[in-house]
Each structure stands twice: as C-alpha cells, then as structure tokens.
Amino acid sequence: MMPKPILFIDLDRTMFDTERLYEFWGIEATKRLPYMEATMAGKIPEPNWAESVFLDVKPFLERAQERCLLVLLTRTADVDFQKRKLERSGLGNFFSGALYTTAMHAKGELVHDFLTKRGKDAVAVFYVDDEPMNIHDVKSENPQVFAMLMRRPDGLERVHDGYLPPDAIVEDFADVAHHMKLYV
Ligand SMILES: [Mg+2]
Fold this sequence. Notes:
Bound molecules: magnesium ion
CATH architecture: 3-Layer(aba) Sandwich
Strand order of the largest sheet: 3-2-1-4-5-6
CATH class: Alpha Beta
Radius of gyration: 16 Å
Number of helices: 7
Number of strands: 6
Order of helices and strands: EHHHEHEHEHEEH
CATH superfamily: HAD superfamily/HAD-like
Strand content: 15-25%
C-alpha cells in the first residue's frame, strides 16, 4: 500500500457548528451537560445533527478520504454523546480512526501515540482544530505536524498569546485543501 498522509481533524466548531446545538437547546455552552444526558436518555428531542455540519465539510472529506488517512481527534465531556454526534451527523464513515479524550491537554499525546503506532510511513501529517491551546499541545509534542487553526467567520474569539502558533490559519476546508494541495 502506498504510504498516505494523515489528517487529524477536530469535531466541534471545526466540522460541527456547535453553537447551533446550544441555540437548539436555548442555552449557554456552560449549561450543556444535563442536555447532553437528557438527549442520550431520549428525554428531549434529538437535534438535527446533519444540519449542523458546516457546508464545506463533506465535499472535502469525500475527496480527502481517497488520498489521506482521516483521524478524528476530539475532546468531550461525554464520549458516547460525541460518538452519536459523529455518526448521526453523517461524518463517521469518512474516518479511519477516531481518538476521543475527556482530558485537557491530551491531544498532543494522542497524536504522538497514534503516529508511533500507525504513522511511521506517513508522507506528511496535518491537523486542523479551532482552539489555539490544542494547536500548541499538538505542536509541542509533534513539531513535524502541519497544524492549521480553523477560524470560522462567526467562531469564538480564541486567545493566542503564549501558545505555539499554527502553521496556517484557515476559514474553511477549501483553505485546508489549499494547504494540503499535493494530497487532496
Ligand atoms: Mg473544536
């Protein structure tokens, strides 16, 4: 098998418009935990997951999955909820691997472990996430990774100071494809 590039992709606010979910529930993000539980227990209506995927995501994944190893890399308070979000939003089938963590600052180590086990032949490694802190964590443990900070036009303001900078700032997956042009 030809060695492939690897692309790690964050879920919330990178592929999935998480603010829409909070609007659907009518809450602030800080109040989300009981709503996540109630959704999993079937006590409140299920959101329309697929509607909350940013429109540029699927066309990109369709192209990218042919040529890259796609790996989900996500932090969540509830792994089962996050798995449901991934599957019911129609994104699950694009990914060859999915790495979930409930811990802050774990993404760098998850990438490192994955690359040690499955990434020896990768011709290049890319990563996209909307949080500067995660970019920092991944870059500090894996300096070879080309890390892209996703800044959605109406995304959250993220403080950048004191973190290792991304290799590029992108606004959508067309920008990601541009930076990966040899591979997507
Ligand atoms: Mg995110």
